[in-house]
Amino acid sequence: MNGHDGLTYVYAAAPDTRRLRTELLGVRGVSGAPVSLLGVTGESESQSEDVPGSTLRTSGTEDAVAFVISRVAPHEFDERALKQRFEDLEWLEGVARAHNEVVQTIARHDTVLPLRLATVYQNDDRARRALVAQRHAFAERIDLLRGQSEFGVKLYVTAAVPSEETHDDTAADSGDTAALSPGKAYLRRRRAQHSAQESRYLHAQQAAERIEALASRFTPHCVRHPAQRGTLAGPDENVLNDAYLVPDYQADAFREAVTAAAEDIDGIRIDVTGPWAPYSFAMPPPPPSLPPDEDRDGRVP
Q1: pLDDT at 30
Q2: Fewest beta carbons less than 10 Å away: which of 20, 55, 85, 297?
Q3: What does the alpha-carbon distance between residue 103 and residue 11 come to, in Å, rounded to a whole number?
Q4: What is the C-alpha to C-alpha distance for residues 204 and 197, in angstroms, rounded to an integer?
Q5: What is the DSSP string of 191-210?
Q6: Which stretches are transmembrane (predicted)?
Q7: Segment 126-173, tens digit of pLDDT
């Protein structure tokens, strides 16, 4: 696609600066399309001369925020196509990966407010109208996120497998091991395993309380996500899946403190990941109410 052909795909909102515009030169997004900034007043005005790295006053206010955009094909991203495409996991994974790479690129250079996957408008004018309507809220959220990154904290309970020593001790307490039938021996092992697993859950609760207390020293901002299940969790059971918004200057200290929260607790494991773009804290405001003939400002669901 060339020029203004195609739908307008929006990855994020970000400060409208000349430096960020320069950093995005050569960046490719979904479907390999070039990525750029879409300002409030249009590209020609918003790219006027200014001090490198400073904020462009494109909107006439201090809320100089732009959408990060690229072009996508209507046959893949219009309303009808998206309903079908979202069932294609391979396609969805590719879009999600490209979307995330663009967002992470912005995060390496400036504050970014990630938007949801496949936020698409009919054209630039429709996208700009949505930006104008929400730019004050976007600017406030960007101010909150400035100088901070997201860290993920996951707590896992490992599977309890009673040792041979546990089997022998349990059997010795009740008499002759040889006198046990295979069925009774199996039930005894299951009880021992259940007891060990219950102990691990108590340990996990203790670790979770430590994590919360330690993390509160670094940040008041926490989002609790549902625990992961199935292949996402791996061989162990995920019981805590939190995200924290941490000041960049405290990132190393946060990681070390939370990782050490369970060093002396058996049967549990802590994973700390990041820094990431603040997806969990973006919380883009809902679009304003529009008259019926405005068609949701041109946004494709």
Answers
A1: 92
A2: 85
A3: 7
A4: 10
A5: HHHHHHHHHHHHHHHHHHHH
A6: none
A7: 999 999 999 899 999 999 999 999 999 999 987 655 554 444 444 444
Model pLDDT, residue 254: 96
Q: List, in sequence order, every beta strand (DSSP E) within the chain.
A: 7-15, 36-38, 65-72, 113-121, 148-157, 222-224, 237-247, 268-276, 299-300
Closest CA to 219 of 161, 147, 124: 147
| Paired tokens of 55 | 């904020």
Cβ within 8 Å of residue 244, ≥6 positions away: 150, 151, 153, 215, 218, 219, 221, 222, 254
Rounded CA gap, 147 and 144, in Å? 9
Strand order, beta sheet including 36-38: 36-38, 65-72, 7-15, 113-121, 299-300
Q: CA-CA distances (angstroms) from residue 182 to 61, 186, 187, 275? A: 79, 6, 9, 52
Spatial distance between the Cα atoms of 246 and 252, rounded to a whole number of angstroms: 10
Query: What DSSP designation does 60 have?
Result: S
Contacts of 166 (CB under 8 A, 6+ apart): 192, 196
Burial 227-245 (b: 16+ CB within 10 A, else e): eeeeeeeeebbbbbbbbbb
User: Are the CB atoms for 65 and 128 separated by under 8 Å?
Assistant: no
